[in-house]
Amino acid sequence: MFPLIGYNKPAYRIYQYLWIGLDWLYPPRCAGCDTPGSRWCQRCENRTQVISYSVCTICGREVSEPGLCVHCAKRPLNFTYLRSWANFEGPVRSAIHRLKYRNDISLGETFSRPLIRLIDYFKINFDLVVPVPLAKKRLQERGYNQASLLAYPISLAFDSKFSSQALIKIKETSTQVGLSLNQRLENVRNAFEAKVFLVENKKVLLVDDVCTSGATLDECAKTLKQVGASEVSALTLARANFEMEKSN
Ligand SMILES: [Zn+2]
Ligand SMILES: [Zn+2]
């Protein structure tokens, strides 16, 4: 279980204690292994493949030398930083599945904590937190957006604005699984719409649960910048393996 975060923001403390109170009423089970007792156990924490801090300045892929990875040197992206906490496998994969499909909404608070630490470590600057949106139909089916659950506590911890309306998804897209990078970029093209009055001159932090090729985040960042966002950074809980070379 991640330690509580001692940021001095009252709203954030209250939010954390609210969830701790709910844990007391409804004892949680570990999101990674289903052991009763906590939302995330030490054993799963130890098994998590946390991504090292030696990463490409832009996309956050692990690199051996500081600077840009080969892909970002070739193809500029629309966000300034993309950082992810862990590889999308083992207990982290189970936890995200649970957050997404099993209504285990307390996990948003749990897993916002490693994201808050990443922001601190990389000194990511923002004044508006925006979750990567779901299309309307998907949101209605699920009842909530898992990215919002991760993003909202971040806004409280840093005393910044949160908006789930600044960016909306206007096109149903088919699954990105099995698509090449170019097909992925095509699939999400013009899928989002951003609101000028919420976004203009803002430094936006985009939040999502998983990133694979980064195509969705890049399209979101592009859309935000088109309506005047001054800068866009992105954070995801996990990063799934994606072979850039093979898929081009
Ligand atoms: Zn566990
Ligand atoms: Zn890169």
Task: Write a structural description.
- The radius of gyration is 17 Å and the shape is globular.
- A five-stranded parallel beta sheet has the order 1-7-6-2-3. A two-stranded antiparallel ribbon has the order 4-5.
- The model has no long low-confidence stretch (mean pLDDT 91).
- The chain is built from eleven helices and seven strands.
- The chain is of the alpha/beta class and 248 residues long.
- The protein has helices spanning 10-25, 42-47, 70-74, 90-101, 107-122, 136-142, 146-157, 181-188, 196-199, 215-226, 244-247, and strands at 82-87, 128-131, 161-162, 167-169, 192-194, 203-211, 231-239.
- The protein is 41% helix and 15% strand.
- Helix 1 crosses helix 7 and helix 5 (107-122) packs across helix 7.
- Strand 6, helix 10 (215-226) and strand 7 (231-239) form a beta-alpha-beta unit.
- One zinc ion binds at residues 30, 32-33, 35, 41, 43-44, 91.
Strand order of the largest sheet: 1-7-6-2-3
Order of helices and strands: HHHEHHEHHEEHEHEHEH
Question: Oligomeric state of the chains?
Answer: single chain
- State the distance separating the first and last CA atoms: 39 Å
Q: Report helical residue fraction.
A: 40-55%
From the alpha-carbon coordinates, what is the Rg to the nearest angstrom? 17 Å
Poorly predicted ranges (pLDDT <50, ≥5 residues)?
A: none
- Please state the average pLDDT score: 91
Which structural class is indicated by helix and strand composition?
Answer: alpha/beta
Shape, please?
globular
Total strand segments: 7
Number of helices, where a helix is a run of at least 4 consecutive DSSP H or I residues? 11
Q: What compounds sit in this structure? A: zinc ion
Hey, roughly how much beta strand do the residues contain? Answer: 5-15%
Largest sheet: 5 strands, parallel
